[in-house]
Amino acid sequence: MGQVTILEETTMNPVSLMGQRAGVCWGADISSPEKNYRRGLECLTAGHGRVMEYVNVEMVLDGYSARVIREWYTHLGGSPTRLQASTRYINYENFPYVIPPSIQKHEQARIRYEALMEEISGACAWLEEQCRIPREDAAMLLPLGMGTRIVDKRNLRSLADMSRQRMCDRAYHEFRELFNDIRTALSGLSPEWKYVTDHCFMPKCEELGYCPEKHSCGRKPARAGQAGKK
Questions:
Q1: What secondary structure letter does DSSP report for 105?
Q2: Distance CA 202, CA 224 (A)
């Protein structure tokens, strides 16, 4: 089970900040917190996504697999940046790893999966300690299922866009878990974040009112002309 830690640099009141930034360009009164908040809501409901880019989100994602973090890196909109746990300097002996649910519930598969992870861990240690192989080379044995840690910085617009794809029932199960963990962590920061996560984070079918995917999960009706296609 991974863990999301929201860092203190994250914007605490995102709706008010969006309204304040928009007010500067509208020649509006930005000294009133109430007016800023109402203006921010107007921006959200009107789909003025540019102001979402002023909302900063910084967090530590810990214990998710290297595989799902590789997918996380594909969402590059809005100039996000990140640092990932080093395989040159960190000792990965007895490294944490993720077990997919399909393997976890199959006893024989789980036993063999765990045995292989232990073998990889032992091989890494043997290469370093007995053969004096540099850690950065021994780490080539590490699997994508190993747990890793990153420090991530991005904005609200990037996260909202990501939710369209990663909250879909057909997204990879660990990524759905990761994104839901982020949504839960942010929603607890303030009432404004609760509003934002409830109204801005959703799979694309909820926004569109239909499913645009070729193979739908059935949550929403298929796009006109798409039903029945294989």
A1: T
A2: 21
